[in-house]
Structure formats: C-alpha cells, structure tokens
Design goal:
Blueprint lengths: L1 H26 L5 E4 H6 L7 E9 L4 E3 L9 E7 L1 H8 L8 E5 L5 H5 L6 E9 L24 E5 L6 H20 L3
Parallel strand pairs: 1-2, 5-7
Antiparallel strand pairs: 2-4, 2-6, 3-4, 4-5, 6-7
Helix pairs in contact: 1-5
C-alpha cells in the first residue's frame, strides 16, 4: 500500500515536470533567447533559462575543477566579459564579470597545455544553471583581474534543454506506470 502511494506520487511529480518543461520549451523560459553581451549587461536577461550571448569574450583565465567522486565529471569555469571589460583588463583594471561560463565538455589535453579557455570573441549558447557548492571555485579566478559579483549568472555552455520528445516520454511513462499500478487495485 505504501509503495503504491509513493510510486503514484513520484509519477505525478515526473508527469508535472515533463509537462512544465514541454510548455516552457515551446512558449516560455526554455526557448532560446539571444542577447549581445552589452544588452545582457545593461538590460539583463529576465527569466530566460536558455540563452545565447553574442560578442562575448573569454579572457584566457579559467579554473579547472576535478570531480570529487568517480561519477563527477571535471569542469572548467571561465569569466565571460564584454569588449569594454576586456579593454579595462588590458589596462590593468579590475572588472566584475556578470556571467561565469562553465562546461564539462573540453579536451583533457587542454588542462596540461593550460589553454582550456583561450582568449577569443564569440557566441556562447547554454543553460543558466548554478554550480553546486562543491564545484564553485570562482573565487580562484585572478583577484588582480576580477571582482566577483554577489549574484553571478552561471552559464553552462554547450548544453540545451531536454528535447520535447523526452519531456513527452516522461509524461507518458509516468501516466502509464501510475495508471497500471492503480488499475491492478480494482
């Protein structure tokens, strides 16, 4: 009896999560929104979860964070700055990067070569997603170049929201499990 109640509650949560993500993907915060770096710094990004930052710069600075457990993937953390902020860094001034990029997708050899986030301008697309406390090593970014804001925006680059068909599959599977479980009762 308790197992059935817990299973049905889990199915309801999974169903609602799939439904919410499906709706958000089509009409809401999971839809790709593109900003120039200057727009994002001056106007903000609102409630967007999936964004593309155009004309953003990586400074060449990054922090490598290895996984604490075998299942944890290592990540690199790097600041994303505007052209004006990069010019300030070049003049020896300290800047406050509003956006901190991070990724699990990088070649392992770049750590040995110390070039995981080379200085370049480009578009960075990803999901706004906080780092866990155990992986947040932004404090290790150079204090001579960066002052970290109280509320940085973490952008997991190279990651997209779950595709619509997976959200639909979660809904259908949760419904079928709950329906089958409750049908056996009668």
């Amino acid at each position: 009896m308790l197992f059935r109640i817990i299973t049905v509650l889990v199915c309801i949560v999974v169903f609602i999560n799939g439904c919410n993500s499906l709706i958000s993907l089509q009409f809401g915060t999971h839809k790709l929104r593109a900003y120039t770096m200057e727009e994002a710094l001056t106007k903000g990004i609102g409630d967007a979860d999936y964004i593309e930052l155009r004309d953003a710069w990586t400074t060449g600075d990054y922090v490598y964070v290895s996984g604490k457990r075998k299942t944890d993937k290592p990540i690199i953390i790097f600041p994303l700055v505007s052209s004006a902020q990069l010019a300030q860094i070049d003049q020896g001034q300290t800047v406050q990067p509003k956006f901190i990029g991070w990724t699990e997708k990088f070649p392992a050899v770049c750590v040995d070569n110390a070039n995981c986030a080379p200085r370049l301008q480009g578009s960075f697309k990803g999901i706004i997603r906080d780092l866990g406390k155990e992986k947040d090593r932004t404090i290790q970014l150079s204090a001579q170049k960066f002052t970290l804001p109280a509320d940085p925006i973490f952008l997991e680059t190279g990651r997209e929201p779950l595709a619509w068909y997976w959200n639909l599959a979660m809904m259908v599977a949760a419904f079928l499990v709950a329906f089958t479980l409750e049908r056996k009762q009668f």
